């Protein structure tokens, strides 16, 4: 680590930069921004490969600060493969829920059209559990909580400078990896591409085990995921690790629509969902979901475009996971994020930390086609789900989901 020292206070002219990273901390060769699945998988894999000169900077104040946390299915060739390479597959299997791989499709009148996916090798795990497994596998002092990256600029030496929102800076980093999700602040140092609103928003609600409607709902919707399609809207119910449910009410709304609503006003939110414009004429089982759901939260769905996946490699900076290629949820996002982490760690190990630019270029060239494919799958999924009914959906996704013609027709 000789030669990688903390910047002195006052190295930069701006008075905002009076505070700097504490002197006890040395400058890492690799700065990973974001302790999500991608950033933590990368940290763990670097550790496994003996590349220990890295730091993860995360905006959350601590490991339990983040409320986001749907269940994720981890696929054998991608997410599971990365976990295996990281020496964590057995730990993963302790948490993996094979009973939740079932996938059902229904119509708005309450009929189940199709059930599939039982026993699939794509077990579910809660995001919080996946994060815990990864966090436990990375030395604690390598993660700097409460560090909100504001931007990356470049110094006179052309090396990246990290600027944090509290005014701290970090210079002389060899490689900044943006694993900071859809709204990446690192991305701007590489490309002008920005995610665009898809026209679709998932309004999340919860039915927990102490909810009076819980037993009825669990009986109606069961394990795994239940997708209902009608009138160009959807609902998705998804069982979580603690057997509670997340429900996504998928609606087509103008950009920013949900920012105009107070989602803490649970009754008003329910009234909106129950109105004739939304689920007013859906079967009672769906309206009951709305009547009992709590903790509403809007996930407006944004995506980069396939054309964005072609930037010129920039020395000292790269992107992985959603920061690189966020798309409409297509069941692959976290798997692809962990694959990126594996590919980047492998490339750095192969080329050596002294040849970081070559390593990054190779990683990016191989990542682009994966990213284009994922964005494409996201577009197909969005186009297929928000349709008149499940039969139209099935027609559109049969080949992609491997559903035979005899099912659901
Ligand atoms: C509603 C919804 C449902 C989904 N369902 C699925 C699914 O079933 N299966 C699936 O595979 N994928 C799913 N996805 C997609 C999946 O969540 C993402 O693809 C995946 O989380 C990407 O991982 P990541 O590590 O790249 O980014 P993230 O998970 O977004 O992690 C980014 C990390 O960076 C941190 N960060 C952000 N900004 C900064 C900053 N400025 N400074 C410091 N730290 C920062 C964040 O706090 C976070 O910890 C879903 C997405 C949504 C919105």
Give a verbal description of the structure.
With 409 residues, the chain is of the alpha/beta class. The chain has two domains: 196 residues, FAD/NAD(P)-binding domain (3-Layer(bba) Sandwich); 108 residues, D-Amino Acid Oxidase, Chain A, domain 2 (2-Layer Sandwich). Helix content is 32%, strand content 22%. Strands 5-4-13-14-15-12-16 form a seven-stranded mixed beta sheet, with helices on both faces. A five-stranded parallel beta sheet has the order 7-2-1-11-17. A three-stranded antiparallel beta sheet has the order 8-9-10, with no helix packed on it. The longest helix has 30 residues. The N terminus is likely disordered. The structure holds flavin-adenine dinucleotide (FAD). Flavin-adenine dinucleotide binds next to helix 1, strand 3, helix 8 and helix 9. The site of flavin-adenine dinucleotide has 33 residues, from helix 1, strand 3, helix 8 and helix 9. InterPro entries: FAD-bd (IPR002938), FAD/NAD-bd_sf (IPR036188). Pfam families: FAD_binding_3.
Give keywords.
409 residues; alpha/beta; FAD/NAD(P)-binding domain; D-Amino Acid Oxidase, Chain A, domain 2; 2 domains; 7-stranded mixed β-sheet; 5-stranded parallel β-sheet; 11 helices; globular; binds flavin-adenine dinucleotide
């Amino acid at each position: 680590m000789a030669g990688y020292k903390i910047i002195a206070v006052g190295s930069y002219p701006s008075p905002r930069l009076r505070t700097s990273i504490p002197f006890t901390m040395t400058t890492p060769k690799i700065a990973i921004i974001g302790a999500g699945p991608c950033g933590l998988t990368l940290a763990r894999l670097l550790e496994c490969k003996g590349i220990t000169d890295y730091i993860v900077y995360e905006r959350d104040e601590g490991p339990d600060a983040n409320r986001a946390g749907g269940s994720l299915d981890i696929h054998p060739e991608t997410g599971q493969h990365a976990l295996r390479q990281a020496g964590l597959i057995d730990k993963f299997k302790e948490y993996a829920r094979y009973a939740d791989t079932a996938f059902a499709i229904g119509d708005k009148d309450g009929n189940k059209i199709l059930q599939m996916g039982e026993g699939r090798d794509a077990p579910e795990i809660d995001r919080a559990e996946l994060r815990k497994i990864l966090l436990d596998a990375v030395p604690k002092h390598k993660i700097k909580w409460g560090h909100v990256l504001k931007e990356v600029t470049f110094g006179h030496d052309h090396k990246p400078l990290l600027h944090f929102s509290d005014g701290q800076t970090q210079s002389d980093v060899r490689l900044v990896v943006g694993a900071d999700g859809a709204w990446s602040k690192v991305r701007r140092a590489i490309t002008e591409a920005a995610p665009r609103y898809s026209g679709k928003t998932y309004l999340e609600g919860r039915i927990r085990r102490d909810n009076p409607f819980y037993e009825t709902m669990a009986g109606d919707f069961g394990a795994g995921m239940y997708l209902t399609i009608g009138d160009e809207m959807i609902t998705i119910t998804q069982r979580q690790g603690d057997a509670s449910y997340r429900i996504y009410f998928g609606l087509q709304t103008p950009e920013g629509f949900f920012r105009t609503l107070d989602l803490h006003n649970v009754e008003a939110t329910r009234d909106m969902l129950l109105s004739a414009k939304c689920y007013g004429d859906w079967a009672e089982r769906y309206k009951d979901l709305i009547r009992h759901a709590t903790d509403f939260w809007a996930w407006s769905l944004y995506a980069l475009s396939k054309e964005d996946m072609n930037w010129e490699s920039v020395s000292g900076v790269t992107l992985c996971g959603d920061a690189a290629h966020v798309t409409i949820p297509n069941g692959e996002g976290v798997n692809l994020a962990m694959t990126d982490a594996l590919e980047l760690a492998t490339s750095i190990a192969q080329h050596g930390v002294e040849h970081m630019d070559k390593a990054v270029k190779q990683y990016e060239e191989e990542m682009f086609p994966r990213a284009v494919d994922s964005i494409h799958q996201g577009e197909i999924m969005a186009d297929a789900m928000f349709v008149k009914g499940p039969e139209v959906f099935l027609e559109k996704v049969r080949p992609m989901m491997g559903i035979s013609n005899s099912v659901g027709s």
